[in-house]
Amino acid sequence: MQCKEDEIITKKKEGRRYQIIAAEVWESLAERMEEKYPEKFRFHRTVWNKFPDGTDNITIGGFDPEDNFISGEHVLFLASFHNNDVTLSQFQVMIYLLQSFIESFTVVLPFSPVGTMERIVQEGQVATAATHAHMFSSLPNCGRPTRLMVYDLHTLQNRFYLHGNAIASLQTAIPLLKDKIFNNSSKIDAIAFPDDGAAKRFSSMFTSEKNIEIIICGKSRDDDKRKVVIQTGNAKGRNVVIIDDLVQTGGTLYETAKVLVEGGAESVSAFVTHAVFPNDSWKRFSKGGDRSNYISKFWVTNSNPTVTNRILTDDGMFEVLDIMDLIVNDL
Length: 331
Prior knowledge:
Layout: H1 2-15, E1 18-22, H2 27-36, E2 41-43, E3 47-50, E4 56-59, E5 74-78, H3 84-98, E6 104-108, H4 128-137, E7 146-151, E8 166-171, H5 174-181, E9 190-193, H6 196-202, E10 213-222, E11 225-232, E12 239-247, H7 251-262, E13 267-275, E14 297-301, H8 305-308, E15 318-321, H9 324-330
Parallel strand pairs: 1-2, 1-5, 5-6, 6-7, 7-8, 9-10, 9-12, 12-13, 13-14, 14-15
Antiparallel strand pairs: 3-4, 10-11
């Protein structure tokens, strides 16, 4: 009986067609989704204009005067909160869509930039992760909660900030890395984590892999300084990939790679889901950069396209992995 019910649910999901509305930076992704899966997606371009006074002048696609393609449909919104201005604009669009008698509403926010600001250390600081959660939770209800899909959220407990009209659907981009490293041509035989938190989060995803050494690093105090050390595992003779959810300037990744090389690693690569790289700090890891001497390959996903669209891949150091099929499968 349960198997039959599961089969019915699967068929319903496979037969579901989404009307896509996308933030401007995700329009190319939306176009590719429609092109590759025309039976599953239809993209409607939105005009994200401004009035002379700087306020929003937005026209949402799909609301044709003669044919409304949005009402009564499953709507997929591709969101990017890379600055406060576009974030507010997108919330205005989400509210309008939810008031348009739609069947369901799914928001794909691959990278939550406020995920690291979930707590405060002094009164007066604003925990913007909680603020965004309040905004999502206050969205209108279309008859069922808004599904908020986020990839490798930095602090997993942030999902519990949501309540009422929004429910978090937490996904991971690790399958993209596994497709890269677990093939016949890959020499990777060790997984390293820069700290215990990353190990607890991701190590279980590799326990079924044979002959893979798990290495956990962490910071240890040496006099007045804190330095990265190998806490468990052995890097000697191994081809190691360091895994973490995001990279800012990359200081911790660099120090972790340095320790692994000093520990005898044959080679060191790195994978992070979200490339933040403020002030184009990715350039320090490119060939000739001052942090290019320990990491031989750097994989990131395009979850933060305003950054990854600028990363140069010609020298072979960086490779940007596309999350499109991952999103389609996770839906």
